[in-house]
Amino acid sequence: MEPVFNFVEMFERSIGLKEPWKVTRAEFDEKDKSVHVYIEAKKTSKYPCPECHKMCKRYDNEDEERIWRHADVVLYPCYIHCRRPRVECGEHGIKVTDAPWSRKGSRNTLLFEGYAMMLAQMSTFEEARKAFVNVNIN
Ligand SMILES: [Zn+2]
């Protein structure tokens, strides 16, 4: 086990975020009781075309920030915010690259979808309670 020195580093490692993607800041919304994590992609890097997956030159970023629901952080809902890079593919034109933390077109992160599926499979309150009790935090 390696030591974690701050929330950003812990968050990046928990979702497997690597260069050229980076968490730039995280905020706790006191009013809504929610956690917001902001991710940016390096401007100089190449990104895969979402159609053919060929690495292409970054063109710019998508105009609108996109928000993904992530698994809860310290019991509060967490959301990832990002304006993903657009690439210029010789075959497919200008396209928004896929975010590595999400399925294509999904508004949820992969971790959140996995967690939701696990909860959905638990048919009773007792089964859900046992799952949480059996989590080893040591
Ligand atoms: Zn392409």
Can you walk through the features of this model?
There is one protein chain. Strand 5 and strand 6 form a beta hairpin. This protein has 3 helices and 8 strands, in the order H-E-E-E-E-E-E-E-E-H-H. It has one domain. The chain has 138 residues and is of the alpha+beta class. Helices cover 21% and strands 37% of the residues. The termini are close together. Strands 1-2-6-5 form a 4-stranded mixed β-sheet. Strands 3-4-7-8 form a 4-stranded antiparallel β-sheet, with no helix packed on it. The chain has helices at residues 7-14, 110-121, 125-133; strands spanning 21-29, 34-41, 46-48, 55-61, 66-73, 76-82, 85-89, 93-96. The mean pLDDT is 88. The chain is globular and about 55 Å long. Bound molecules: zinc ion. The site of zinc ion has 7 residues, from loops.
SSE layout:
Layout: H1 7-14, E1 21-29, E2 34-41, E3 46-48, E4 55-61, E5 66-73, E6 76-82, E7 85-89, E8 93-96, H2 110-121, H3 125-133
Parallel strand pairs: 2-6
Antiparallel strand pairs: 1-2, 3-4, 4-7, 5-6, 7-8
The structure holds zinc ion.
Zinc ion (ZN) binds near residues 49, 51 and 92.
